[in-house]
Amino acid sequence: MSAARSRLSKLAAIGFGLLAVFAPQLLAAQSPVQVRSPAGDIVVTFSDDGGRAQYKIDFRGETIIAPSRLGMLFENQHGFDEGLSITATTIASRDETWEQPWGERRMVRDHHNELLVTFTSTSGPAREMQVRFRVFDDGVGFRYEIPKQRRLGKLNIIDELTEFAVQEKSMAWWIPSHGWNRYEYLYQTSDIADVSGAHTPITLRMPSGVHLSIHEAALVDYSGMSLKQFRPGRFKADLAPWSDGVLVKTKTPFVTPWRTIQIAPDAVGLLNSDLILNLNEPNTLGDVSWVKPGKYVGIWWGMHIREYLWGTDGVHGATTEETKRYIDFAAKYGFIGVLVEGWNIGWDGDWFNNGDVFSFTKAYPDFDLKAVTDYAREKGVRLIGHHETSGSVTNYENQLEDAFALYEALGVDKVKTGYVADGGNIKRIDEKGIVKYEWHDGQFMVDHHMRVVREAAKHKISVNPHEPVKDTGLRRTYPNWVTREGARGQEYNAWGDPPNPPEHTAILPFTRMLSGPMDFTPGIFDLEPNKRPPVNADMPRGDPRSRVETTLAKQLALYVVLYSPIQMAADLPENYEGNLAAFQFIVDVPVDWEESIALAGEIGDFVAYARKDRDSEDWYLGALTDEEARTLSLPLSFLEPAQTYVAEIYRDGVKANWKDNPYDMIIEQRDVVRGDILSLPLAPGGGAAIRLRIRSQ
Ligand code: NOJ
Ligand code: CA
What we know:
By secondary structure, this protein is an alpha+beta fold.
């Protein structure tokens, strides 16, 4: 057996390879070496020119990524920066379809060609680094695989040299990295020159119209990658450091997360890509029928609009009585859960800065956890648990097992977690009792989230972190990691300065949502809640300039456009009962899909999606626009032939606009068939939501 082949078998033995499926073929060591996507549009070229590991990507004859560096540096040990030579290359391919337990689509096709390149040191101590590239029709993923080797054992990564040299004249949609507000920034639309440091996914449009999104997949046991532009168009991996400055603490053998570049000829192409999921490992939890998608309501928006407080030092929201009112509402309209925030001891006073006092097992005296969960059970509803840490992670980890065991015993099967704390201010107490502050996306927190997800899985509980680490597709491997926040959500419309502008939800699908589901919490019906009279003179409402900058129809559209397997109906029950005609769409809309198709869109302007229900023949359509009115023409080519569908349409009225006339909405029914072109007028800040059901004969 050749050296490279025996090395591959070794990797397979430790779980890196999939030789049986791949049937890899060893090529002669050469430089440069190429691999193409299955349809041939994408070509990746590798070289060791000048002793440096480099790659380059072309799409339909255009250079998308100019020659860009690969490698990494270690503390006090020789790294992989120069003096490297390609000594082996192996190609393989795969074409298989796998099933998601829940998701935007049931079946996902993983079709790619793979190249594994081995770089060996030509000077200094003998060292070896492998880079595995997978080239799909919708983009490229690559990761480093550092085999176990005599001279490299335990190590600290002090720099990852990965570069992405994109075209200087591109446009970028991005949020800044290393900021106090984590991922909760408004997206910038700018020339690439204005991007200093950016979180991923970052989305780029090149002058030719080709769109790219750079991100990562399977972020496990490593630090999150953001990007730093250090020369015009030339981005470099920028890993979130530990509090001691080290980027990643690891030992050989190890693999890094996949660095991903999704590539599409147009903006919509990015939305129909499964590349991130395909690069994650299959489900490791076995039977996950206990992970239940569904819609929920909660004692939540009431705090954000100051109806009541999380703590008991004012009007307390999380009381037994109020929770029962929400449970009744949920049962009446078919919601599966009621989220209750502020139920546990620790919220009084300055909870933002006092995370150490949170108890995750003790309720406030006016919240009877047992009575509430018993009542919910009788009504066929579940309490959704809540663990806000305010960034005091050691305090949370110390209680983790007890907290999940308690919830499991009471039938709670979903928990929302929270990490409100300035970026980089996650409190960790080390073995010596010394307090350290870590980044939300550093290796410590990457590991923490995995601990929570695994512990939750032991108790058959699904998790929904807010202020999380970004999504990298780990829901495939851990299907109980159902959703997360990780961007500006609806809450900014209650108190944000500024609130989310109309273009925000026309940018999210092309940026944040490429990474995975988001708990945006749509469905606000009272669009100017801060104009309501205060419930209590001591609790004035927020600034009336903070409001929802959408029409009512657009709030409905969000259920289809912004994918999440758990979706909140975020407003107060009385606001829904005051408009049952519009609320009907929220009652009807599913959250788990057989298929999803992005129909149309331009970043920051508009977007339209069609999705098919997993449990019926119904299709749903959601479309929304930024501050501009526009009429979309959407071909209904996804419908079944020879069937007439009733389209139940919720759209903006002719005079609607988000600012002055947001409630003007038309609800109408129309018969449609496959092949019809639906003309859909959208108001400024508006949207449309449609249920398409087969007409019964
Ligand atoms: C911020 C979260 O995004 C929000 O949903 C939650 O209500 C508060 N933290 C309190 O946990
Ligand atoms: Ca938040």
